[in-house]
Amino acid sequence: MRDLALVGLFLAILPYAFRHTWAGVLLWTWVSIMNPHKLAFGFAHTMPFAAMAAIATLVSVMVNRDKLKLDFTPPIKVLCVFIFWMCLTTAFSVHFDPSLDYLKKVLKIQLMTLIAAAALRERKHIELFIWVNAMSVGFYGFKGGLFTIRSGGAERVWGPPGGFIEGNNELALALVMTIPLINYLRMVATDKRLRMGLLVLIGLCAISALGSQSRGALLAISAMGLVLWTRSDKKFAMAAVLLVAGVLLLSLMPESWWERMQTIQTYEEDGSAMGRINAWWFAFHLANDRPLGAGFATSTPWLYSIYAPNPNIVLVAHSIYFSVLGEHGWGGLLLFLLLWIVLWRMASAIRKEAKNEPELSWLYHLAGMCQVSIVGYAVGGAFLSLAYFDLPYNILVILSTSYVWMKAKRWQTDKQGAFGAGAPVSQIRTAAMKRAQLW
C-alpha cells in the first residue's frame, strides 16, 4: 500500500516537472533529501525516483516556456570555480576510477543546484522550495522526536538508508540546519494553527537531534542559540526562552546521553575522537605534500600508510573541512571556505537592505534564519563528512534567488516611482543597480 501511494504521488507530480522546471526542482529536492522510497518495503524501494526526477527537470529546461536565467551572484561564481577545481583535482587523483565515480555523484547535485538557481524566479517558487527542504528533513524530526520521547532518549535516531543523512550524526546535523528554515516558515505564517504546528515541529526536531546522541549536534545547537541571542532585540527575554527550552529538552535525555556528551571534554580517552584526529592529521600532511589533494578516494590503507600518524586507523575525515582539504588540497579548502563566507555576506547585505522595508520583511527574516542554519552547518559539519550534502547548497540557492528577486523588485520600484514614466531606461537601471548593490 505504501509503495502504491508513493508511486501514485510521484506520477501525479511528474507531468508538472516536465512542463515547469521549478516543479522539477521541487520534485528532485524532495526525492534526493527525503529519500521517500527508502521508507517503502516493496517494488518502490529500489525504483530510480531521483533519476526520473532529474530527467524530467532536464527535459523541462529544453522544452518549457518558463523564463530561465542563471544570475551569477558572488556565491554562484565561487561555486562554479569550486566545481571546476574538483574536476581538476579528480583528473590528478591518486585513485582515479573511484574518484571519478564520486565526482559524477557530486556533479549531479551541483548541476541541479545551478538549475534550481536559474529556475526559481518568483517568491512563491522560493517559498515552496523552502517548504520542500524543511518538510523533507522535518519528517524525520517529527518521527524521531516522538521516538525519542517514547524511548526516553535511550535509543539513537537514524535517518533513511542509502542517503547522505543515513547515520545518526548526519541526520542530527540536517535537523539542526532545518530548524531555522522551519522557524522562518513559522514567522511568516498567518494562520495561528499553522504557526503552532510548526513550533511543535521545531521542538520535535530539536528532541530528535539530541536523541541521535550526536555530540556535534549539541555543539551546533548551542552555537545557533548563541547567534539567535545576539540577534535578538530583547536579549533577556530570548535568554530566558533559550534557557527554559534547553532545560526542558535536556531533561528528556537519559544518563547514557549525558555520559556520551561528557566525552567532549575527555576526547583523549575516546577512540572515535582520536580516530578522527588521526584522519585530520592525515589530511593535513596529504595536502602539504600534494597541492591538488588526492581526489575523492582518500581513505585507503596505502595513503594512510604514508601520511597518517597512525596508519592502522583508516577512517574518513569526519569533517567538512578536512575532507575537502585531503581531497582537493589547500586551494579546494580555501574555495570551500570562501563559498560560505561570501554567502554569509550576501545574507547580511540582504538583511541590511530589507530591514526597514515592510514589503521585504520576509527577506529580512529569511536571510537571518539562513545565517543561523549556516552557523549550524559550520559548527556541526566540523565533525562530519557532509561537504557535498544537498541541503547547504539548497540554502545557497535560497539566498541567491532571494537576492535576485530583491534586485528585480528594486528595479521595478524605481522604474514605476522616482523617475517617472519619461525617464531613460538606462538612468532607471543604473539607479536601481546602485540601490540593490550588495558588495
State mean pLDDT (0 to 100 scale).
82
Contiguous uncertain segments of 5+ residues: 265-271
Radius of gyration: 23 Å
**N-to-C SSE string, H for helix and E for strand:** HHHHHHHHHHHHHHHHH
Helix content: over 70%
Spatial shape: globular
Largest sheet: none
The helix tally amounts to 17
Query: What is the number of strand segments?
Result: 0
Number of domains: 2
> What proportion strand?
under 5%
Distance linking N and C termini? 53 Å
Structural category = mainly alpha
What does this structure look like?
- This protein is 73% helix and 0% strand.
- The protein is an all-alpha fold and 439 residues long.
- Mean pLDDT is 82; it is low at 265-271.
- Helix 2 (21-34) runs parallel beside helix 6 (123-151) and helix 9 runs antiparallel to helix 10 (235-251).
- It has helices at 2-19, 21-34, 49-63, 74-91, 96-119, 123-151, 168-188, 192-211, 215-231, 235-251, 255-261, 271-289, 301-307, 320-354, 361-380, 390-416, 425-436.
- The N and C termini lie far apart (53 Å).
- It folds into two domains: 1-66, no CATH class; 71-406, no CATH class.
Supply database-style keywords.
2 domains, 17 helices
Q: Care to give the gist of this entry?
A:
73% of the residues lie in helices and 0% in strands.
Helices and strands, with pairings:
Layout: H1 2-19, H2 21-34, H3 49-63, H4 74-91, H5 96-119, H6 123-151, H7 168-188, H8 192-211, H9 215-231, H10 235-251, H11 255-261, H12 271-289, H13 301-307, H14 320-354, H15 361-380, H16 390-416, H17 425-436
Helix pairs in contact: 1-2, 1-3, 2-3, 2-5, 2-6, 4-5, 4-14, 5-16, 6-7, 6-8, 6-16, 7-8, 7-9, 7-15, 9-10, 9-15, 12-14, 14-15, 14-16, 15-16, 16-17
